[in-house]
Amino acid sequence: MEMTTHHGFQTMFHEGRLTLGIFAPIEAYEGSIPTMRDHLARIWRAERLGFAALWVRDVPLYDPSFGDVGQIYDPWVYLGYVARHTRRIALATGSIVLPLRHPLHVAKAAASIDQLSSGRLVLGVASGDRAVEFPAFGLSPEGRGDRFRDSFNLLHRVWKESFPEIDSPFGLLHQVDLLPKQLQAPCRFS
């Protein structure tokens, strides 16, 4: 699929035109933790003003030495909430830390948000930049590159294929399928 036919991508990118997006949390705050007060009203205003995208981050744990915690909420739960209350603004992740999440959960969550938002999801994925988070999940930061590649490949297959036969480091898929599928081919960035 060409990105020019992807709903979220079309909202964010226009040839010859500048578009603007916003990153949550949309507030000025002291310290590392936002209040998230009035965040939905700010998102509505951004949508009315023509902002192209709302970006959210995947920050599983608060590391005081690293700084802020993003929008505090789990990105999938938050995007589901925002999808319910908006109509046009693209919903983008910048980025889901793929090595810290099971790829089947990511695939299902992303496809669900894509369906519930009428195709507005733009999925950004990354290998993770906060090494302190990996041991908390029983993982070594040194293995994140391999986990990222394996996860990325599994995501692609379960979205594209029906009943894929997969034997991966994450498990065995045999005579099962992931539902829902995305409305359109996934728009992914890393």
Head-to-tail CA distance between termini: 18 Å
The stretches of 5 or more residues where confidence is low (pLDDT under 50) are none
Count of individual helical segments = 6
The named CATH superfamily: Luciferase-like domain
Structural class: alpha/beta
Mean pLDDT: 92
Q: How many independent structural domains?
A: 1
Specify the biggest β-sheet. Answer: 6 strands, parallel
Strand content: 5-15%
CATH topology: TIM Barrel
CATH architecture: Alpha-Beta Barrel
What is the number of E strands? 8
Task: Please write the string of helix (H) and strand (E) elements.
Answer: HEHEHEEHEHHEEE
Domain Luciferase-like: 20-182
Keywords: Flavoprotein, FMN, Monooxygenase, Oxidoreductase
Protein name: Bacterial luciferase family protein
Organism: Candidatus Nitrospira nitrificans
Kindly describe this structure:
- There is one protein chain.
- The two termini are 18 Å apart.
- Strand 6 and strand 7 form a beta hairpin.
- Strands 1, 2, 3, 4, 5 and 8 form a 6-stranded parallel sheet that branches. The protein has a two-stranded antiparallel sheet with strand order 6-7.
- The radius of gyration is 17 Å and the shape is globular.
- With 190 residues, it is an alpha/beta fold.
- The protein has 6 helices and 8 strands.
- It has one domain: Luciferase-like domain (TIM Barrel, Alpha-Beta Barrel), CATH 3.20.20.30.
- This is Bacterial luciferase family protein.
- It comes from Candidatus Nitrospira nitrificans.
- InterPro entries: Diverse_substr_monoxygenases, Luciferase-like_dom, Luciferase-like_sf.
